[in-house]
């Protein structure tokens, strides 16, 4: 059975604009609900937190865009730099390895200097890494690309270490999961746009090898510099961890004895491992049997999958008004285990739709695990956020394992790895999220 064709020459610009407009306007009303009351239960605090929330949310879009481009670079570099599948996963190792190495220093920096300076430092590293793609492309050096990507991802580590916990404390603790899922929705918008850009410039008729890579990343570097200037000029409320409303008895417990936190580190490691591995081999899977479509069409399928990821974030955020966050995490994890097994054992071209559906159901996992892991941590919040961000190193390790399995068996068989990872996230949703008894 042939997979329905996507018209490659279609103009996606108005569609992208519609998606962004819808998410922006829809998110405005949802954000108002999230800030109807705050930690101080005052309208003054609501106004004080609302604009910083919007500004910080823009960061989620920026690192989503970077991640959306990363997965397409795998296949692009396999062809332009003539590298193998398993070697191409060194891109993920450099990218997510930076999270492991830089997260703790980033957390210590922000503990001393605050969230705002941490964000600015992160944006500077992000821009520098993006600009270094130009000499990397000129020299056609895969190793230079890895260095550039590591520097870029070091900046993203600062941004994630700052933005994720900052959003959870910009308001009441009981709506933290809601706020973080809402902000993370714009991460999905960026991830959706990235592959569309890549499909047109890296694989389309306009593709000029590495020339297109230079243009894209120079443009990103300029935009990031502008955002850094905006943050530098804007006053952001610096929230003291000692002022966060929590259970006092729980905050007196040493950080590593908070089981909802330690279990979150484990669950986030395996979740990110699954997410990155699934996306990294998406195009390889689609271009091989039984799906067997072109690189360009596969990149568009990836973009549609990331659109489903974005829609899933908003849908999940809405569902959390009716279903507890940990219960939704468990349900979605079980569904994804089933979908991964379909990909591995059902040899049909329709498998691509199971692969695309995974993106919808994994959408709420990162912010939900993150927010549940930070519950009732009080003055431990910034340090705890650093450790959870460090666990993103799972995205550096598992794709390489999937690459080895794909090289020796098949790309489809490699999807057993994320299936196992979703078992861990299901466990966290059902049991591992529970905090220490009061």
CATH architecture: Up-down Bundle
Proportion of residues in β-strands: under 5%
H/E topology pattern: HHHHHHHHHHHHHHHHHHHH
Mean pLDDT: 81
From the spread of the alpha carbons, the general shape counts as globular
CATH class, named Mainly Alpha
Number of domains in the coordinates? Answer: 1
Largest sheet: none
Please, what is the CATH homologous superfamily?
MFS general substrate transporter like domains
Q: Helix fraction? A: over 70%
Structural class: mainly alpha
End-to-end C-alpha gap: 57 Å
Low-confidence stretches: 1-29, 35-42
Compute the number of strand runs.
0
Radius of gyration: 21 Å
Instruction: Give the CATH topology.
Output: Growth Hormone, Chain: A
What's the oligomerization state? single chain
Please tally the helical runs, counting DSSP H or I stretches of 4 or more residues: 20
């Amino acid at each position: 059975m042939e997979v329905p064709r996507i018209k490659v020459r279609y103009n996606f610009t108005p569609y992208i604009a519609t998606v962004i407009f819808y998410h922006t306007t829809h998110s405005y009303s949802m954000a108002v609900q999230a800030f109807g009351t705050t930690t101080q239960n005052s309208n003054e605090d609501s106004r004080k937190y609302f604009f910083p929330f919007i500004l910080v949310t823009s960061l989620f879009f920026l690192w989503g865009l970077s991640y959306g481009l990363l997965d397409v670079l795998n296949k692009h570099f396999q062809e332009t730099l003539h590298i193998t599948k398993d070697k191409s996963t060194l891109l993920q190792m450099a990218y997510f390895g930076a999270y492991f190495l830089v997260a703790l220093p980033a957390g210590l920096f922000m503990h001393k200097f605050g969230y705002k300076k941490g964000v600015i430092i992160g944006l500077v590293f992000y821009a520098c890494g993006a600009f270094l793609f130009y000499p990397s492309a000129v020299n056609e050096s895969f190793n230079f690309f890895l260095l550039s990507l590591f520097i870029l991802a070091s900046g993203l580590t600062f941004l994630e270490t700052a933005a994720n916990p900052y959003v959870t404390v910009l308001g009441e603790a009981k709506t933290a999961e809601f706020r973080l899922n809402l902000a993370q929705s714009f991460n999905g918008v960026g991830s959706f746009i990235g592959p569309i850009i890549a499909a047109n410039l890296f694989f389309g008729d306009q593709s000029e090898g590495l020339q297109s890579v230079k243009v894209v990343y120079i443009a990103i570097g300029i935009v990031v510099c502008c955002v850094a200037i905006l943050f530098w000029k804007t006053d952001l409320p610096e929230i003291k961890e000692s002022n966060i409303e929590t259970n006092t008895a729980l905050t007196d417990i040493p950080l590593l004895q908070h089981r909802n936190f330690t279990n979150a580190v484990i669950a986030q490691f395996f979740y990110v491992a699954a997410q990155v591995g699934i996306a990294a081999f998406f195009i390889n899977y689609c271009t091989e049997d039984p799906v067997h479509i072109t690189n360009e069409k596969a990149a568009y399928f990836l973009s549609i999958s990331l659109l489903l990821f974005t829609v899933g974030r908003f849908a999940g955020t809405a569902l959390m008004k009716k279903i507890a966050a940990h219960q939704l995490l468990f349900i979605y994890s079980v569904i994804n285990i089933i979908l991964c097994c379909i990909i591995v054992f059902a040899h049909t071209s329709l498998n691509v739709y199971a692969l695309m559906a995974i993106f919808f159901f994994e959408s709420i996992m990162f912010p939900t695990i993150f927010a549940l892991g930070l519950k009732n941590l009080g003055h431990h919040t910034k340090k705890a956020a650093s450790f959870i961000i460090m666990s993103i190193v799972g995205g550096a390790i598992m794709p390489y394992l999937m690459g080895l399995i794909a090289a020796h068996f098949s790309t489809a068989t490699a999807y057993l790895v994320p299936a196992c990872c979703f078992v861990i996230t299901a466990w966290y949703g059902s049991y591992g999220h529970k905090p220490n008894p009061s």
